[in-house]
Design goal:
about 475 residues; alpha+beta; OB fold (Dihydrolipoamide Acetyltransferase, E2P); 7-stranded mixed β-sheet; 10 helices; 25 strands; about 20% helix; elongated; OB domain-containing protein; NA-bd_OB_tRNA; nucleic acid binding
Length: about 475
């Protein structure tokens, strides 16, 4: 029931209570006659109020229909005092605090005639700010209008207040947001996850594109929720909108009768929303981060190697815990043929590493677990430690007489067999000493024959041989 119908019913109820000789049917006819008398330009609640006054019933300003007391935003002018105005909340900055300790909250109210900004301070910011939820139609009572920075602004006096009239339909709210271009986003939640101390939400927004929300840790969201967020920083990263909301930002679940599926019924295809891949290995960069190699199935019945670039060792550590396992990965974006991480990269193993059986084969056979003898053409390694946990790779070029392959291993046993050093113990070495040890072995083992157990894949990727074990002479 609309606010107009609610107020009309209240007035009819009061007439029935004070005039027992009148029936609802008679009152309805009197209201219809009054609407017709004014050529149909007044609402039923206004006509009902006129009928009530003719019958000797008085209503206070607060209980009178808004069509008679509330102004449109386009009608407001600087200098107005103690006026009522109705509109839809399209922006709420959340409660903020100046360096002086003074609290404030900025908001924006809109209707079909325009938009106006307002500010609340201290106690009113804390109390009234909670009422001004994005998507709510509200009535501001006894507010004033002043000129600030060349535009009109609403401000609250000590007797000012606000009340919620209704929740706006989602479609209408989106039209207002599109029309007035305020910093408010509506996002449909597909998945949420805690990532590295962040509350990450993966979703879709208008116009049906992928969005990542980084929310305060104490924010609770559920799948298919519609969230309205205001007062957040926003930027685009390779086709994905990233919205970061601090603890003061306004984040609320929209109360709407529409299904949340109204917002982007068909979810666009994007790695942001998750995909499954087996973690084959990783190659460390000289500084932080590295290149992770994933086994994906592009849908043509074969397995391909897909690289993912990250510039954080914490992400490498997450992938190292999923080596050899199929993982569900969220928060990656595709740039040409390479995946790149976002702030909300999430990796979750979805199964244990299956047992492997290696069959003797040359490097000519693709997508197989093989055992093969080959000559070391090139060898290098890199190791660094994150919170006393080793991150390392062993990279080698091997030739078996039929083909030359680049091999990669992140196996602790391979590292120890090649360099006679446990990776965990290597964390205790000074970097300069460790570099000398690795460099010496890299040169010493050139030209020797080794037997490797590995997974071989047919791919154009930098590495196609992922080594699980090695035997040296």
């Amino acid at each position: 029931m609309s606010s107009e119908d609610v107020e009309t019913e209240q007035i009819i109820g009061e007439i029935l209570r004070t005039h027992s000789n009148l029936t609802r049917e008679i009152i309805e006819k009197m209201i219809a006659s009054k609407v017709e008398e004014f050529g149909g330009i007044i609402r039923r609640d206004a006509a009902a109020l006129m009928v009530a006054k003719e019958l000797g019933i008085s209503f206070s300003r607060e209980s009178a229909p808004s069509s008679l007391t509330a102004l449109r935003i386009g009608d407001l002018a600087s200098g107005f005092r103690g006026v009522d105005v109705e509109g839809v909340v399209v922006f709420n900055s959340g409660l903020r605090q100046l360096s002086s300790g003074k609290k404030f909250l900025r908001f924006a109210l809109a209707d079909n005639t325009g938009i106006i900004w307002g500010v609340l301070w201290d106690e009113q910011a804390e109390k009234i700010g909670k009422i001004l939820r994005v998507g709510s139609k509200v009535r501001l009572l006894k507010v004033s209008v002043r000129r600030y920075k060349e535009r009109n602004e609403i401000y609250f006096d000590k007797n000012s207040s606000a009340k919620v009239l209704s929740d706006l339909a989602l479609e209408e709210l989106l039209k207002y947001l599109e029309k007035y271009r305020v910093r408010t986003r509506v996002v449909r939640v597909l998945k949420s996850s805690m990532v590295a101390g962040r509350n990450c939400v993966y979703g879709v927004g208008e116009p049906c594109g992928p969005v990542i929300l980084v929310l305060p840790l104490d924010t609770t969201v559920q799948e298919n929720n519609l969230l309205a967020v205001s007062g957040c920083s926003e930027f685009s990263r390779r086709g994905v909108d990233v919205v970061k909301c601090d603890i003061s930002a306004h984040v609320s679940a929209l109360q709407t009768s529409e299904s949340s599926l109204f917002l982007c019924r068909e979810v666009p295809s994007s790695e942001v929303f998750g995909f499954k891949a087996e973690v084959l290995g990783y190659l460390l960069f000289r500084r932080e981060g590295g290149r992770v190699f994933l086994a994906v199935e592009p849908g043509n019945g074969r397995v391909d190697v897909k690289p993912l670039v990250t510039f954080r060792d914490k992400s490498i550590l997450m992938f190292s815990e999923g080596l050899g396992k199929v993982c569900e990965i969220f928060g990656a974006v595709a740039v040409e043929d390479v995946l790149r991480e976002t702030e909300c990269l999430s990796i979750t193993p979805v199964g244990d590493r299956p047992p492997r059986r290696y069959n003797f084969s040359k490097f000519t056979k693709g997508d197989a677990f093989i055992m093969n003898r080959a000559t070391v053409i090139a060898l290098n390694a890199r190791l660094r430690c994150l919170d006393s946990r080793p991150l390392f790779h062993v990279s080698m070029v091997l030739d078996d007489g039929t083909a030359t392959k680049r091999g990669l291993s992140n196996s602790p046993s391979v590292f120890e067999k090649v360099y006679s050093l446990d990776p965990r113990e290597a964390c205790e070495y000074p970097p300069s000493a460790l570099e000398k040890i690795l460099s010496f072995v890299n040169q010493d083992l050139l030209g020797i024959d080794v037997i490797v157990k590995a997974r071989l894949l047919e791919s154009s990727a930098q590495y196609t041989l992922f080594i699980d074990d090695i035997s040296l002479p």
